[in-house]
Amino acid sequence: MKKKIKLAGAYLWSGFNKIRKIFSCSGVYNVPILCYHSVSPENTSSGFRLKPDNFEAQIKFIVSNYNVISLKELVSNMYKKETIKNAVVVTFDDGYKDNFTYAYPIFKKYNCCATIFLTTAFIEKEINLTEENEVLEPLTWAEIIEMKMSKLISFGAHGHTHRMLSNIASNELGDEIKFSKGIIEKKLGENIDLFAYPNGQLRDFSKETITVLKKNGFIAACSTIWSTTNTPKELYYLNRIIVDRDDDINNFKLKVSGAYDYLWFFHNLKRS
Fold first, then answer.
1. Could you read off the pLDDT of 4-14 as tens digits, one per residue?
2. 207-224 burial string, b = 16+ CB within 10 Å, else e?
3. At what angle do helices 52-65 and 249-257 cross, to 10 degrees?
4. What pTM, to 2 d.p., does this model score?
5. How is domain 2-271 classified at the CATH fold level?
6. Cα–Cα distance, 145 to 117 (Å, whole number)
7. Tens digit of pLDDT for each residue in 69-86?
8. Which of 7-16, 50-59, 255-264 has the lowest mean pLDDT?
9. Angle at 49 between CA 115 and CA 252, to 5 degrees
10. Phi, psi of 94 (to 5 degrees)
11. Is the dihedral of CA 254, 94, 115, 53 positive or negative?
12. Residue 93, SS3?
């Protein structure tokens, strides 16, 4: 029932959204940032795990109909206030091994770029991110480096222990962010300046969080607040579109088109 209500809202919003995008103000970037987590053929109860066939159909669609750009390119253009037309960005959160096993071959097949945000304590096998009845393995550093060398996949930080940053004491917040950045930079030999908030809703980060990110050299951060558009003032809480197991290609197209952007209002209730 909940899914049907959301879908009905999407159809109602889609007509208005097309008009809104035509008359959108300058400085509004109509570039959907897609947020994935896991791609696997295994039957699972986890809503965030997509079947490889579904994922491939989605990647094929965006490559055929949009200009797929890196998150870094989008952020750079937003800082320069340069326009981007008909573009889409692909991101993954957490750093599951199946990103390499199943998603990466599809990225190579379609020459599609993406950014993967790594939870470093998970990659270092110090913590698990899933329930005991469904433990997902982390990427290895060798796999991460191989993807980096392809030039298709870039990496960002997702915190060290995947704790919600707003729940961390001020004297620990810096370390949670610095550890993730420092470990990735040491392993990959490059500057890491993009971040994704664990969970990523408004209650999960704060002005203090953004201050610490800026202090540690991050130039942008992704939330999971829902919208296909962003403005430069949102560079430290960029909106994204969650893609999940139940998304067939038609629902995926609706999400990318902005038909579900009405969810932004619900995600921003805390702000008012």
1. 555 545 555 55
2. eebbebbeebebbbbbbb
3. 40
4. 0.91
5. TIM Barrel (3.20.20)
6. 14
7. 999 999 999 999 999 999
8. 7-16
9. 75
10. 95, -55
11. negative
12. strand
